[in-house]
Fold:
Amino acid sequence: MTLLRQENRRTLLVVFTTCLVVFEIFAYVATTPMQGERFFQLYVLGANKLTEDYYPTNPTLIPGEQINWYVGVSNFMGNVQLVEIRVKLANMTFGSPDDVHSAPSTAPEIGLFDRFINGNETWEFPLVWTITSAVRIQDTIRIDEIRVGNQTGHINVSSRNGFNFRIILELWTLDGASNEFQYGWTTKSIHRSAWLQVWFNATTSRSLGQLTYSTPSSLRQVDNRDIHASILLMGDDLSFRIISHCQHKFQS
Amino acid sequence: MSRVLHPIVIFIVLLSIGTFLRAWDIHAQSFGSIDAGFGLALTSIRQAESAGATQAQISQLVTDLNEALNLKIQAQRPSSSNESRAAMLAHVDQLLNDVRMRADTVQASASQTTLKNRVVTYALGAIAAIIVTFVYSSLRKIWSAYRIKRTMQMRVIVK
Structure:
C-alpha cells in the first residue's frame, strides 16, 4: 500500500513538473516581445496618390511647372526612429546610391525632410517641387535652381538636350550611438538602405510640348512621330520653325 | 603542417583587415549630426518603449518631439528674426526637457506594470500546472475506483 502511494506521488510529481515547464515556456513566449525582421519602406506616388501621373502632362518639364508627389516612409524597426529624406537632383553622370557598399548618391541635395516616426507607423507627406531656373547653353540644358517644398536648392546640374535628369530620394536615419545621420539603417549588424529615383527631361519653354500633345486640327494629319522627333532634335527656341515644318508637310 | 597553416593565418588576417575597413567605410559615410537634446529624448523614448509603454503613451511623446523638430527647422530658416529664433530655440529646449522627463516617468510606470504582468503570467503558469496535476490526480482516482467497482461486480461463471 505504501509502495503504491509512493508511486502515485512520483507520477504526480512528474506530471506537475512537466506541466510547470510547458506553462512557464508559454508564459515566457507571451511576455517576451518577438523580434521579427526590421526594415523601412520608402515609396513615391503621383499627384493622385497612385503609381502613375507623376507629371501633369509629360515628363519634359519647364521652369515654373509644379510637380506634386507623395513620399511615404513606413517604420518596421520596432521602435521610434528619426528619419530624414534627402532629395537630390542628378543627371546621367552622377553616381546612383550604392546598395552593395551602402554609399549615398554623389548628386547635390535640393531638399531635406525630417520626422520622428513611431514603430509600425507610416509618414506620408506631399513633395511639391518646381524647376525655378533653367538655361539652355547650346545643346545642353542646365538647371540652376529648384524649389522643393519651401526649400530652394541652388545647383548646377546639366544634361545634353535636357534628357535624363532624375530626382533621387534617399532614406537616412539617426544612429543612436553616434548621434549622426547615417545613410540607410543597421539591423543585426547588417547595413541596409532604401532609395528611389524618378526620371524626367527638362526644357526651357513649353511651346513644343504643347505642340506634341495637342496638335491643332489643321495639323492633325501630320505624323506625330515626326513632330516629336523634330522637337527632340531642334529644341525649344526653334519652335516657330518646327510649326512651319509641320504645316509645310501637311500642305505637301 | 606549417605550410598549410601559413596561408590560413594570412587569409584570416586579410579577412579581418577587410572587415575592419568595410566597417570603417560605412561609418565614414555618415554625416550631419543633430542636437544632443533630440538624441537624448529619442533614447529616453526608446527606453520607455522597451520597458513596455503603451502605443498611446509613446505617440504623445513622439508628437511633441516632432513639434520640437518643426520648431527647430523653422528657427534655422534665414527668414526668421533673431528674437523669434531665440524664442523658438528656447521653446525647443523646453519641449525636449519635458519629453525626456515624461519619457522617464512613463518608463518607470511601464517597468512596474511590465514586471507585475510578468510575475502574474509566470504565477498563472504555476497555478495552471497545479490545477492540471489536481485534475489528473482526481481523474486517476475516479478511474481506479471505477476499475475496483467493476472488479467487485464481476461474476464467476463456470463453463
